[in-house]
Predict the 3D structure of the following.
Amino acid sequence: MAEIGYRDNKTSNPVGLADKSRRLEVSKTRSLVVFISDAHLGSGSDSLQRERELCRFLDSIKGHCSQLFLLGDMFDFWFSYRYTVPRGHTRLLGKLAEMADGGTKLHFFIGNHDMWLFDYLEKEMGAVMHNDPEVIVIDGKHFLIGHGDGQGHLDHNYDILRRIFRSRINQRLFALLPPSWTFPFARRWSDSNKLKHARKDTLRYLGDDREGIVIYCKQRLQKEHLDYCIFGHRHTPLLRHLGAALYVNTGDWLLNRNYAVYNPQDHSLKLYDLQKGEITGC
């Protein structure tokens, strides 16, 4: 297989890739399936550089990627006004449109930061939008895929907040406010929440009984057969066996540059760091 990945300018080394269940059958393919989450574009002084790195990575895989799964929080905030497109992110949007036009199927699972994308990506580039975790069959394997916020219901305050944010009535009321008000407010809220979570040192694996996504996956596994459970949200790259299924958390593209790849040629699912290569033993 051709080398995939771009060369890191710092090291000159190739960065390579060697009920709620609406079951979506995907035709068998020998091309790669790639999973990325949590770029939080628009947040931080390095957002533009982060976006450029992400676009270079996408450019390196576009000829080999049959499906690209964006697992939420790719944007730190987004609200789809009827006639207004948020400023920024033009490089990523253009690259996604190019990949879609080239035959890559795009999936977007909304996160807790970009839950108000609505149908923008669907109409502009044919992306399949997902509001909740779904089981998708790829290469005969059953993948449970989602962003991960609110799973396991360990934070009841967040459960309430999530219902408020997802309320159609509240969304319509929010849309009445001008973007010059809503975007600055939302970004200040987002930044304060990220700082709070960083202070709590939650960006690490907390144990099976304190990880909402793991609790949720175990509950699903009691009811149905799953081969893989792939989520983002936690900003913690992780590979962990849950019985016969493999749980993969895709980490983030905010502080790290993580992604996961399923290769139908050898039926393998691997987790990577853009700079360090394959992640094992986590």
Notes: The mean pLDDT is 81. The two ends are 27 Å apart (CA to CA). The chain has seven helices and 13 strands.
